[in-house]
Write a structure and sequence with these properties.
Elements: E1 25-27, E2 30-31, E3 44-46, E4 54-56, E5 64-68, E6 75-77, E7 82-84, E8 86-89, E9 106-110, E10 115-120, E11 123-125, E12 128-131, E13 133-138, H1 168-171, E14 182-186, H2 208-211, E15 221-223, H3 236-247, E16 250-255, E17 261-264, H4 280-292, E18 294-298, E19 301-303, E20 309-310, E21 326-329, E22 335-337, E23 342-345, E24 353-356, E25 375-383, E26 387-394, E27 400-403, E28 412-416, E29 422-429, E30 437-445
Parallel strand pairs: 3-17, 4-9, 5-12, 14-16
Antiparallel strand pairs: 1-19, 2-18, 5-8, 6-7, 9-10, 10-13, 11-12, 14-17, 15-16, 15-18, 19-20, 21-24, 22-23, 23-30, 24-29, 25-28, 25-30, 26-27, 26-29
Length: 453
């Protein structure tokens, strides 16, 4: 399929919003002093078995059921926090080819739905597609998770595997720089155990606390200092990468085994720094980049993808409708739909009331845990007359600390987060009159300054 490189933000060739962290660049970054250590191998910028392919779906492509891997409980859906026997993908390109490594990454962009489907351990077994994990994000969104929808891709940092990679159409585009931040992985001796991740990441490798010995968390932005000498890099492909690291940097999205850093290139791009044999000059320059790369710890501001001043705002939605729902009354319980981010009620003869005591409606993302006295805005998003109610109870005494009351579509309540540690309970009410209905909501901090690293 031939695709024009022209287009707006949030497209197959120019993914995510103009203010996505992937497309923004820092102003006057302040760098840490920790040097990425050497390890078993030289650093690399490469496609290959642990990178990913990016495949464009069209309205003409057929749907495809993706089943669980043999012996697994189902396909893990981290946003819903449940296993599903089948994930039905509406449009499946014929050319889908997962990366050959054990991670089996592949991302499918469906512009009609506005979704990036991101797979982990995707395999075709005897003509049937199977996967270990499925997550999704909006092609026009941030390209990173938010506390409510905290897992939006197959990488450990909860981002789609296409986020930040060097794309096929960019390799020989005549530009001296890639116009977005890059995606990188580090190995154990560079990655930190605590914190395992920082903004904008919302997750990290689960074994970080016991295996990592360095100082750089996943989600960190790495950059080369502005005075790093790129003119002495004779390899044009590597020089372009180094120039990008001086302007946009690279976000740490995953962990590897034994390589100081890997910067990922889209599979099928024919990108090769070393040519037909090992190039000592390239290896020396890669090691020089390793020694100079540093984590960004502070900035004086940000510019968006169009070069306009912006704020890197971490006031993002905290609320999800996931988790176990107890059916209080009615005939048929509503079901959480990850694509809609709502509880969906089928047409019913009478009203349905459900309560979620699970605690999973608020995921404790470390950089977004509510603080005592912080002001929040709760907004309901509903159809068909459905309503939402949020309550907060003290952990120790079970005293009710906040009750929003029943909120219909686009109703708003502003409140201060209680001083005591609290657990959240959601109550959902279906619409009436026998029609389908749905309910979700957002919980966002009000006010606050620009996020700092």
């Amino acid at each position: 399929m031939t695709v024009s490189a022209e287009g707006l933000w949030g497209t197959y060739l120019k993914p995510f919003s103009v203010q996505s962290p992937w497309n923004a660049r820092p102003v006057s970054p302040v760098l840490d002093n920790f040097e990425i250590p050497r390890s078993d191998y030289f650093p690399t910028v490469a496609q290959g078995k642990y990178s990913t392919g990016v495949f464009l779906a069209s309205a003409d492509d057929q749907s495809m059921p993706v089943l669980a891997l043999p012996g697994r409980r189902g396909v893990w859906i981290p946003d819903a926090e449940e296993y599903r026997q089948t994930v039905e993908i509406a449009h499946w390109p014929a050319e889908v080819l997962p990366a050959s490594g054990s991670d089996g990454h592949a991302d499918i962009v469906d512009p009609g739905l506005g979704i990036v489907h991101s797979f982990f351990q995707l395999k075709n077994i005897d003509g049937q597609w199977r996967a270990g994990q499925y997550a999704w994000t909006s092609i026009g969104g941030r390209g990173w998770g938010e506390p409510g929808h905290y897992f939006q891709g197959a990488r450990a940092a909860a981002v789609p595997s296409m986020g930040g990679i060097i794309r096929k159409h960019e390799v020989d585009d005549g530009e001296g720089i890639y116009r977005h931040a890059l995606a990188a992985s580090l190995t154990f001796n560079a990655l930190s155990a605590n914190p395992a991740y920082v903004y904008p990441a919302t997750s990290a490798d689960g074994s970080a606390a016991t295996t990592n010995t360095g100082r750089i968390p996943e989600g960190a932005l790495l950059m080369l200092p502005g005075n790093f000498d790129t003119l002495t890099i004779s390899n044009a492909k590597l020089r372009k990468v180094a120039e990008t690291l001086k302007v946009y940097g690279a976000y740490v999205v995953d962990r590897n085994v034994g390589t100081p850093f890997v910067i990922y290139v889209e599979n099928g791009s024919d990108f090769n720094l070393h040519g037909s044999k090992w190039d000592n000059a390239v290896a020396r320059d890669l090691d020089r980049i390793r020694a100079a790369l540093r984590q960004v710890v502070k900035t004086s501001g940000w510019l968006d993808g169009d070069g306009k001043a912006m704020k890197m705002d971490r006031r993002l939605n905290l609320l999800s409708m996931r988790g176990a729902w107890k059916l209080d009354s009615g005939n048929q319980a509503g079901v959480y739909d990850t694509w809609q981010q709502r509880l969906m009620f089928a047409p019913a003869s009478g009203p349905v009331v459900q309560t979620n005591y699970s605690g999973r409606i608020l995921n404790p993302i470390t950089w977004a845990i509510p603080k005592s006295g912080e002001v929040f805005r709760l907004t309901t998003h509903a159809t068909g007359g459905a309503r939402l109610r949020l309550q907060l109870f003290a952990l120790k005494s079970s005293q009710k600390l906040f009750d929003s009351g029943e909120l219909a579509d686009e109703r708003v309540v502003v409140f201060n987060w209680p001083a005591e540690q609290a657990r959240a309970v959601a109550i959902a009410y279906s619409g009436v009159g026998g029609q389908a209905s749905s309910v979700g909501g957002s919980l966002v901090a009000v006010g606050g300054d620009e996020a700092e690293r």
